[in-house]
Amino acid sequence: MAHQQRMIQERTLKMTRNILFVALMASTMAFPALAGEFTLTSPDIAEGQHLNNYFVFQGFGCEGGNMAPTLEWSGAPKGTESFAVTVYDPDAPTGSGWWHWFAFNIPADITSLPAGDAINGVQLTNDYGTEGFGGACPPPGKVHRYQFTVHALSTTLDIDNSVSNALAGFMVNANSLASSTITAVYNR
């Protein structure tokens, strides 16, 4: 009887190992893109961290440097023809969020933007009404999220800086191969 139980345990163990091996192989085959994952990094901002005053708007009751942080990305997918960079506050009490920056048609050979907002590409008017980057400046109280996103696009966009952020967002999403986001926070 003990011999039969040991044989059943050995068979069960062998079957479990086989199932785990098959599951491991299937998961490896299902996620081949992880090896070259598209990643956004920055020496100036970090996921979930409070924004420095350099990246706060100058105006609307805020007193900051109104500079865009340095952004760096790697692992762009094959077929990337251009990049777009957006900064968006989904917590703004507008019903539609707040666009702090929308830049596109950044050449595919560029993999970083230095602090500031000078880019080789097209910049839209932000929700402050100026072209380029506009820093954080939420109403006093609630913590707001600032989503800094780089998008790898399969084309250069056939639009200019006269379009709305919503239309540009549609075009970016329709042509996106991959994106990566750092969400920083700020309140006053």
Q: Pairing-aware structural class of the strands and helices?
A: alpha+beta
Low-confidence stretches: 12-35
The succession of helices and strands, N to C, reads HEEEEEEEEEHE
Rounded mean pLDDT score: 86
End-to-end distance:
73 Å
Beta-strand residue percentage: 25-35%
Features:
single chain, five-stranded antiparallel beta sheet, globular, alpha+beta, three-stranded antiparallel beta sheet, 2 helices, 188 residues
Q: How are the SSEs placed, and which strands pair?
A:
Blueprint lengths: L1 H29 L8 E3 L16 E2 L2 E2 L7 E4 L7 E8 L8 E10 L4 E2 L8 E2 L20 E10 L11 H10 L1 E11 L2
Write up this protein.
The chain is of the alpha+beta class and 188 residues long. It is built from two helices and ten strands, in the order H-E-E-E-E-E-E-E-E-E-H-E. The protein has helices at residues 2-30, 165-174; strands at residues 39-41, 58-59, 62-63, 71-74, 82-89, 98-107, 112-113, 122-123, 144-153, 176-186. The strands form three sheets. Strands 8-6-5-9-10 form a five-stranded antiparallel sheet. A three-stranded antiparallel sheet has the order 1-4-7, with no helix packed on it. Strands 2-3 form a two-stranded antiparallel ribbon. The longest helix has 29 residues, at 2-30. The chain is globular, with a radius of gyration of 23 Å. The termini are far apart. Residues 12-35 have low confidence and may be disordered.
